[in-house]
Design brief:
This protein is mainly alpha-helical and 458 residues long. 62% of the residues lie in helices and 1% in strands. The chain has a two-stranded antiparallel ribbon with strand order 1-2.
Length: 458
Amino acid sequence: MSPYLAAEDLSMFGRDPWWLIVVKAVFCFAFLMVTVLIAIVMERKVVAWMQLRIGPNRHGPWGMLQSLADGIKLMLKEDVVVKRADKAVYVLAPIVAAIPAFMAIAVIPFGPSGNEISIFGQRTTMQLTDLPIAMLYILAVASVGIYGIVLAGWSSGSTYPLLGGLRSCAQMISYEIAMGAAFASVFLYSGSMSTSAIVEQQADRWYILLLPVSFLLYIVTMVGETNRAPFDMPESEGDLVGGFNTEYSSIKFAMFMLAEYVNMVTVSAVTTTLFLGGWRAPWPISTFWEGANHGWWPLLWFVVKVQLLLFLFVWLRGTLPRVRYDQLMKLGWKVLIPVSLVWLMLVATIRALRNENYDFADIALYVCAGVLAVLLLSFVADLYRDKAKRAEPPAGEPAAFDPMAGGFPVPPLPGQELPPVPRRRPRQERELIVSGGPDTHSDGSVGGSTDGKEASDG
C-alpha cells in the first residue's frame, strides 16, 4: 500500500445510543433549516444592496424575519391542483426533491473525529456518521433529487413545466460529469472517499491550494447543479414563466424553494469539506492558537466557511446575467468536461510519480513538459486546420432562414438571422390616412357612403 494513502479509521462511528443518533439527526436538520432562513434574508438584503434598493424591512427588526413570514404565507395559501395533472406524481415530486437535499448532510464532519464532545454526558463525534465511500453517497443522493424536478415538470400536464424539467435533466447530465471528475481528483490526492479522512489529509495544506482547478470546476458545477443564476435554466422566468414549478402553489411550491436552498447549503458544506479544510481554523488563527481546532470551535469555522460560500451564490446572482441554453450546454460539454478530464489525468500522473518516490523537481519538469507538448500539438493542429480552410472553395450564399418552415415558429440558431420585419408606414402617411386621405376610399362601404354624401350635397 502506498504511504500516501489515508488510513481510514471509522471505528468511532456507529457506537452512539439510539437517542443520541436522534439528537444529532435533529441537529443536522435544524442546522439546515436555520441556515436556509438566514440565507434567504441575506440574499434579499445583499441583492438589494448591490442594486441600490431597500430590501426587506418590515417583518422583525431590520426585516430579519422576512423568510419566516414567507414560509408562513406559503403554508396558509390555497393549495391548487391543476386538472390535467397526474395527481400521485404531482404530489410526490416536491417530496422527492426535498428529502435527498437533507440526506447528504449526514456524512459531513462538523468537527474532528478524534476530538469527542459531551452531549448529555455521552461522548460522541461532531458528525452523524461516516462511510468509506461517503462522497459516492453524496453523489448518489444529489442525483436522486433531480428526479423531483423532472417528475414535477412531467406530471403538471403543461408545456412550460415540461420544458423546465427537460432542461434540468440535460443540465444535470452536463454538469455531473465534470463534478465527478473534480471529486476524483480529490480522491486520488487524498487516497480516500471518507469525508473525515479527506479533512484529516488537509492538516498541512488545504486542497484549494493543491488542486485549484478542481476547486474552480466544482464551484461552477455546484452553481449549475443547484439551478442558480446564471444557470437557472429550468425556472427561467423570461421564457418559461416559472419552469418546472409553474403549476405548483402553497406548501408544494415552498418545498421546491426549500430544496433549492438546502442544496445550496449542502454543496457549500461539501466544498468546505473537500477544498477549504473542513472544520479547521484558517491559517493565521491555527498557527498561534493551539485550541482553535478543539472543543466547539471547529463548528464555528465550519459555519463561517459555509456562509461565505452562500454569499458567493448571492454575489453571482446579483452580478451575472442568465446565460442562454446553448451557452450552458457548450460550457458543460466543450469546456468543463474536457478540462476536468485533462486535469484528472494530470493529477493521476503526479500521484503515480510521487508513489514511485520521484522528487518534486522531477514531477514539475514532467508536468511542464507535458503541458508544452499539448500546447505544441494544438498549435500544429490549428495551423493545418487553417490551411485546409483556406484551400476550400468559397461556399455559396447560405439559405435564408425560415422560422415557419416546420409549421410552427422556431428561434434562430447561432449564425442564423431572422428575415427583416416589414416596416410600418411613415408617420406622415398614417396622419394622411386618418385625416381623410385617398387611402380612406379603399374600403367599398366607406367609399360608397362618402360618394353618397357628396351626391346628396350636390
